[in-house]
What does this fold into?
Amino acid sequence: MARLLSLVCLSLILGSRAIAQEQGEHIVVTGAPSLMDWEKYKIQPHDNWWMNFVRASRIRIEQLRQQYGPSAQITWLVYQRGYERRQKREHENLFSIIQSVRDKYGLTLIFFNTADQLCYYLNYGSDRRHNKIASFDYFGHSNRACFMIDYSNEIGSGSKVWLHENELKNKLHRGIFARGAQVQSWGCYTAESMSRMWYQATGAKMVGAVGKTQYMTNELPVLVSASGRWSTGY
It folds into this structure.
């Protein structure tokens, strides 16, 4: 009887893993906030609150967990060096707060430091032949042509770590996204160019903003331009 129960339990565990793979992997990518070293001189400084992108990511992660259930595979990729630099200016442990989100929602937390590391995970991180990306959300700075993962974090008003639309065909593989995958950039201006290039490179349509977005405290980013809209660029 004990052996039978063990086999039943094993079958349930393997079955739940198979179901999670069939549903695919949900990926949330979080860029770094700016530093006040440079931003404090601007009329409209970025990221007074270091948690801008982390808070928005947490809200989306909670939605994913509620929508897809406790066994859904959720992976959170966070740009590490940017939070290390910002932590030196704060009076709290940023990484303990980030890790508390991991613990609360039972997800996989991965820190990355280059765009190549990010793309490698998207391409190979979880056996893309059998486990496609079911959803992808990017929270961070962006312009119409690229994700600016460390904007104004290492150099003022610029970026040294980015994923540009002209790199997408070389750095991302077709077939890594599930059919009908939900893909969204919550940064500014993405739908004005990059969304089209993303689709051409990956075959997945990415919703992005026409115009600017504003990161909020207790809700996902919103459009702030009078003519702003969410669009796939087509």
The helical segments are 2-23, 36-39, 52-68, 80-87, 94-105, 115-124, 168-171, 194-202. The CA atoms of residues 30 and 78 lie 5 Å apart. The longest strand covers residues 177-185. Confidence is low (pLDDT under 50) at residues 1-21.
